[in-house]
Amino acid sequence: MDRHIRFDRLRNFRDLGGYATADGRRVRAGLLYRSDGLGKLRTGTEDWDRFLALGVTTVIDLRHGWEVERQGRVPEHPSFTYHNLSIEHRPYDQPSLGPETEPGPYLAERYLEVAEDGTKEIRRALELIADAAVSGSPLVFHCASGKDRTGQLAALVLSLLGVPEPTVVEDFSLTELAAPALLADWRERNGGRTPAWPGYGRAPGSVMRLFLAALQRRYGSVEAYVADALELDAAALAATLRARLLEPAPASWPPLTYRRAAEADAGDLVRLRDSAALWQLARGIDQWKPGEKDEEHFRTRMREGEVWLAYAGAHLAGAWELWWDDPAAWGPRPPEAGYVHRLMTVPHTAPPGAGRALLAEAESRIAASGRTFARLDCLAANPRLRAYYEAAGYTVVGEQHAKTDGAGSPYAVTLLEKRLPG
Q1: DSSP state string for 171-194
Q2: Is-above-0.90 flag for pTM?
Q3: Residue 177 to residue 339: CA distance in whole angstroms
Q4: Which end of the chain is more exposed for a tag (fewer CB within 10 A), N or C?
Q5: Is the pLDDT of residue 24 over 60?
Q6: Among 162, 165, 181, 185, which residue's Cα sits nearest to residue 238?
Q7: Are residues 244 and 379 in the same domain?
Q8: To the nearest 5 percent, what fractions of the chain are helix, strand and coil?
Q9: Whether 308 and 407 share a structural domain
Q10: Does residue 123 fall inside a structural domain?
């Protein structure tokens, strides 16, 4: 479910596998990883055992030499080779930036500097990635937080693989899930102080979107940048990466199974919702924001209604909340309906059609309770989601112009309902 691989000390270690390409294939899992600083690993620990179990044969460290000396490098081991390729030639101090600095334009400009200053190192990194791909050997690249330099290299590789830009932006923004831990680590290293820049550790999608747009304006495309600035055969490189790192989409999927959530699932539900929110934002869908719902929200919904999880085999595929009344949106009503909230699927790895299957299962739960209607709402400003529910048999029956969930200003929602079979 969670693209982040859990370590005790690493905060932003992720598998790039599972992303779909424009031609319908997907990136193979277990071959290409991105991470924050591997110098935090220690031999003889569970983290070290977890890392070695991945079978990594190549480590690319994108940090400055002085960062390696100060923060340490991944411990030596005969199973992998280590390469220090500092792609950033003009260091900048993010924690000390002023609060007026807007992350999107500022970081995108720094990324373009890195793309033009670090051509020798970026070229070598891509060559190493291609070599590892040819041999079928797992590789990891990292910087300090696994966001900026790592995010740039990931964007280049994913673009060469044919992954669409919204997914590239989404992959960059997933550092948002690690941002609180990255900030806590910085405070611990700096005597409890807070960075002057509120954007420290954050990864809004606008940063990557602006960087890719700047790269396109200057070179025409990522492939043209690779050919002109890095002096690589971009077509041959892309062909090699695609032949070795892509696989066909699954022809069949395990049947979905369902279970009611327990309090221990609250953390996974928060991660699932935040991941879904980042997926939406990367595609211009203004519905959810990361961090809006915490574990207590889901525990409350379990106590006052129902929360359900869906699995494809052993893997989480999605979840939803089922309420038995919803006065904030619908006002006082007799017990004639069930109200579906936070219908969400795992981005990129849920089976096709999972959202519709989850909705049908929720409707069957409502019908089994003897109620006549399934009801839900979506932001009035989200016509795409409204159309999705209308295609599933729901009818618009009104709007609530001042819904509030107690967490912010009132907002307008479209009310939809579906009469269930008797």
Answers
A1: HHHGGGGTHHHHHHHHHHHTTT--
A2: yes
A3: 28
A4: C
A5: yes
A6: 162
A7: no
A8: 45, 20, 40
A9: yes
A10: yes
Pair of tokens at residue 35? 């991470």
Domain of residue 291, residue span: 256-419
Same domain, 389 and 274: yes
CATH classification of the domain holding 286: 3.40.630.30
For residue 210, what is the domain's CATH number?
3.90.190.10
pLDDT of residue 407: 65
Relative to beta strand 395-403, strand 256-260 is unpaired
Same domain, 310 and 370: yes
305, 201: one domain = no
pLDDT tens digits for range 145-155: 999 999 999 99
- 279 and 220 together in one domain: no
Q: How far is CA 176 from the centre of its chain?
A: 8
Helix spans in 174-310 (H) = 179-189, 205-219, 222-228, 234-245, 266-282, 295-304
Q: What is the pLDDT of residues 353-401, one digit of tens each?
A: 999 999 999 999 999 999 999 999 999 988 989 999 999 999 999 999 8
DSSP secondary structure string for all residues of 312-351: ETTEEEEEEEEES--HHHH-S--S-EEEEEEEEE-TTTSP
Clarify whether residues 381 and 234 are in a common domain: no
257-270 confidence digits (pLDDT tens)? 999 999 999 999 99
